[in-house]
Amino acid sequence: METLTSLCASQTLVSHTARPSVSANGYAYSLNSRAFLPRKQRMSIIKASVAVEQQTEKPKVALVRIGTRGSPLALAQAHETREKLMAAHSELAEEGAIEIVIIKTTGDKILSQPLADIGGKGLFTKEIDEALINGDIDIAVHSMKDVPTYLPEQTILPCNMEREDVRDAFISLNASSLADLAAGSIIGTASLRRKSQILHRYPSLKVVENFRGNVQTRLRKLNEGVVHATLLALAGLRRLNMTENVTATLSIDDMLPAVAQGAIGIACRTNDDKMAEYLASLNHEETRLAVTCERAFLETLDGSCRTPIAGYASRDENGDCLFKGLVASPDGTRVLETSRKGRYALDDMILMGKDAGKELLSRAGPGFFNS
């Protein structure tokens, strides 16, 4: 009788339907083979050979590992990145070619304190940057307004995807706008930028500063009556398909947005030419230039979570860059604004941002941000 090894290798036993066969008395007999085996034994041999074949297949290794925070909004941005990479590169469209890796950041871990109290920069990016540098991920997807004005060594941020709507959304169950809120109404926000601009225009309102958590958490707190209203970035609500919650959209003049609000940035390692090539295909240059201008403004002011700063660069009807910048005292009693206009070109826009920052620093004077 043939050995087990030779039977496993036999073409007859790999597929018993491939060649004609007959059966009698519980035995299967292949017309092209001299082997007689009980049917149960024959099937167990086939299953064993298939299992060996499956074990020898190497697991697929992702071509791109995307690092992201685990909030619903962060994941929506990571999935948007994945979809655009798949559309732009055929090899990334194959199953398993792109993996999304969730990384918990300091900002996600500490929710009991205001952002201003737990440290300035990099609260939502530090651990993701470390994973990138260590080679645990290949690219890092960030909300650009969370990215410090400096980048860690060994990393670059060559890509900003096309910007979403930069405006803030007003959400309330019992008022149609900030102006309609009764005196003493409580607004929840984790942003000093929003707090200072609200109190500057509506000093009779109260602002709860430690109104933190993801979009869903904040809306739940609003529904539970913890606050009477809140402000959220319209861009995030759009990416989550949750715009039905918006009561009103605030104009740029009513609420100047955060630097880089609505923009997604994607980083990679400095020496990773392949990832840089992938990211180049997703970059939206108009957005990248606007974000660079705004970040030059922020860097000049050395802004942090303790500093109410707003800035927005856009292209006007003539194709030029129009930049608006603002700094405020945390209590909203003083707000300083400025604007610049110039060519929509990288060097010009960097100079505009820096110049606007220098002007407001000079006008603010020492101790302005401690008031």
TrEMBL record:
Q: Name the enzyme's class.
A: transferase
> Known Gene3D superfamilies for this protein?
Periplasmic binding protein-like II, Porphobilinogen deaminase, C-terminal domain
The EC designation for this entry is 2.5.1.61
Q: Ranges for the Porphobilinogen deaminase C-terminal domain?
A: 289-361
| Molecular-function annotations in GO | hydroxymethylbilane synthase activity
Question: Alphabetically, which GO biological process terms does the record hold?
Answer: chlorophyll biosynthetic process; heme biosynthetic process
Keywords for the protein's UniProt record, in alphabetical order:
Chlorophyll biosynthesis, Chloroplast, Plastid, Porphyrin biosynthesis, Transferase
| Assigned GO CC terms | chloroplast
The name on file for this protein is: Porphobilinogen deaminase, chloroplastic
From what organism does this protein derive?
A: Linum tenue
Lineage, top ranks: Eukaryota, Viridiplantae, Streptophyta, Embryophyta, Tracheophyta
